[in-house]
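Hey, I'm writing a tutorial for new members on how sequence and structure tokens pair up, and I'd like a real worked example in the thread rather than a made-up one. If someone can provide the structure for the chain below, I'll link this post from the tutorial.
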Amino acid sequence: MTEDLTPAEAYAAALARNAEQATALAPFREMYEFGLDPFQIEACQALEAGKGVLVAAPTGSGKTIVGEFAVHLALTQGRKCFYTTPIKALSNQKYADLVKRYGADKVGLLTGDNSVNGDAPVVVMTTEVLRNMLYAGSQALSGLGYVVMDEVHYLSDRFRGAVWEEVIIHLPESVTLVSLSATVSNAEEFGDWLDTVRGDTEVIVSEIRPVPLWQHVLAGRRMYDLFEEETDHGGRGASRREVNPDLLRLARTENSRTYNPRDRRRGKMIREADRERERRQRSRIWTPGRPEVIERLDAEGLLPAITFIFSRAGCEAAVQQCLYAGLRLNDDAGRLRVREIVEARTASIPDEDLHVLGYYEWLEALERGIAAHHAGMLPTFKEVVEELFVRGLVKAVFATETLALGINMPARSVVLEKLVKWNGEQHADITPGEYTQLTGRAGRRGIDVEGHAVVLWQRGLDPDHLAGLAGTRTYPLRSSFRPSYNMAVNLVDQFGRHRSRELLETSFAQFQADRSVVGISRQVQRNEEGLEGYREGMTCHLGDFEEYARLRRDLKDRETELAKQGAAQRRSQAAASLEKLKPGDVIHVPTGKFAGLALVLDPGIPAGRTNGHRGFEHHDGPRPLVLTAERQVKRLASIDFPVPVEALERMRIPKTFNPRSPQSRRDLASALRSKAAHINPDRHRKQRSGAADDREIARLRAAIRAHACHGCDEREDHARWAERYHRLQRDTKQLERRIEGRTNTIARTFDRIVALLTELDYLRADEVTDNGKRLARLYGELDLLASECLREGVWEGLAPAELAACVSALVFEARQADDAVAPKVPGGQAKAALGEMVRIWGRLDALEEEFKINQAEGVGQREPDLGFAWAAYQWASDKSLDEVLREAEMPAGDFVRWCKQVIDVLGQIAAAAPKENSTVAKNARKAVESLLRGVVAYSSVG
């Protein structure tokens, strides 16, 4: 209340208002109908003050406002701003948003598919495009003032994450970096690293959701709240949230009612009344079907909803189930509007392809307000679904988890069918971070008062586990940065080897590794202090007790070594004697439970496996099956024969002998005792110890006796301190090796890569050869293989379609490995070239093994995959979409995505291939033209 202010306070407030009006933030705030949140204001003020910012906030909280302020600042200051995103769809979406605000003349777009107004002051691009510009020294970097890295937590991605770190490290110092991240638990650590490599960086963390989130479990006809009292609604409130006791009771009932088949075996038949009660209970807690869930949400006013199903086929099946159930979520006006938008957006798709793409079934579902969304769909179809969902014309979307990665599709509710998903290797529980990312879509800012996350009841659901997922709001950011061949030649070309090595040591990966050794380093320091105390305790006035203790230790080690050699020799002799045994040999078992006379029934198989009473077991040598004098049939092991064994006598084993017959065993054991009871086995003479004649032991004993400390009265006290000193010193060295293994790891990997590239004549010290300059233009997982194919002329003389088939092997990776059937490939020159590519890869793989470059660590060249070669060849040969998809057995979305990746690499090859006496560059460009047609050519932007 201004009337309550003193004149001095009123004057100060007026000055503050005037100062705020003079900032760039004031006019920016007026562009929005809603007020900015405190974290947004704090970040924008830091940006205007010239600092870099890291903003970590929940999905849907509006952190992109900070990125848009960087755009505003750049335009105000007459500088450039690059807005980077992890995926092309998000780039397209952000481009459309910025064009709407600033006009098409001020905003450009650069992705692998599109290039629109690339010289504009504001350019939206994928992160890879910016990385390539940095390495190429592009003129577009001139005047760059701000770079926004949206979804920067992508640097955890093991396939693409390194690109984010490359950009952050290599951006000019004059560029202000705006990093936007999901809520991660180690934002401060990431901020510390940004502060180190980029200068003054403000870390702003917000864990408050702008729209409260309610958690539910849908079981049968009832929607249970997950928490009994949810005062903080998914934020960080002070009150503790208790799991709903009704839900816990339901879980206990479900688990206790599970039928146990052992009850039947025990004769405890479940009474009919119990079974009837169980049926009634089950009737209340079934898992609702997909149409039933949507109808329930519609009745509760919880649509629009996204249902996450971790399977493409499951998403498509869910849409069909809703259609068969007669579900209709749009009225007549909505249906007409849907058809109008869909027909306008798909007008560029050839009519003959619409039927192949399942257009009419897709349209029917859209008109009813229902759709699927997954990576197997045609990009155009996905974009239409996104647009209709945002417009409220699609109210139920069944999606895979890829929808959660940045696409702006907020819903009122999010449904999770299961808490388990296939991670490429096994079915695994979703993590708290994944749960947060998925449920973060629930609650539309400015539209919904609250969002709802609904988990469907499944048998075995643990409410406490679910509460843990819902209550853990964050997950750690872990670097996936690893040097690559392309990165190495680009770095050496720009900075030389030494400076490149230093740059790589500034990566977030190395920063995290170095921090992880801090605790180990402290332990090493404590150990060194302890060693100093032990050294004082073993000090002897007569001489160097450390030297004396080392002699004693050397003697002990030598005696132990000789004892092991002797034991190994005896075991070897015993095993050799067992191999000489034959059925009918009478032997004396020297030790063990069955020591005494025994008759060999079967000498046993050599080292490997035996099918004894315990199934297949691994062992060290023969395991004879014997009959003892006490009538037992047993299979003995090498441990029963510490010394060699000899046949004392021979006996005939009757053909009628049955080891399972007590009478047969009794008769044969009686014959054994009669035949051999009088024989006294020769006692195995103990061999002379190897230590007795060992010169090294004699020398050490003499040195110990001659040492001055040998005559010390306190010799054994000193020895105890010396033993402690030795143990602690050994432990300390192990810790130091662990530190060494974690520090400079990135630089050591870089050294190995440089050594291999030097061997192949890509590098000569700090010089990048012509071969290296070619490799510098090739980005991708198989960059070195592509470069070697160009160097050896593998693709010379190939037709454009054949070249497309070969290049597809550099980018394609089957979703599931299928080694049973060899993929179909084109014949003729293409087949020979593909075979040569595999041969070159084999040579590179052997070289990587020699230079200790490990693919398991994310470095190196995987084997080329020929699974897309036939589809690429067919499409580049002008075959119809129907024919290509039918033979490839591949969804349209996957086909388009792989074609675009092939086009991208063909473009790189056209730029890197020799310009003279070569057909590759020309045919690569022709191959791009052949592939860029029909559904592949369609672009939603530009």
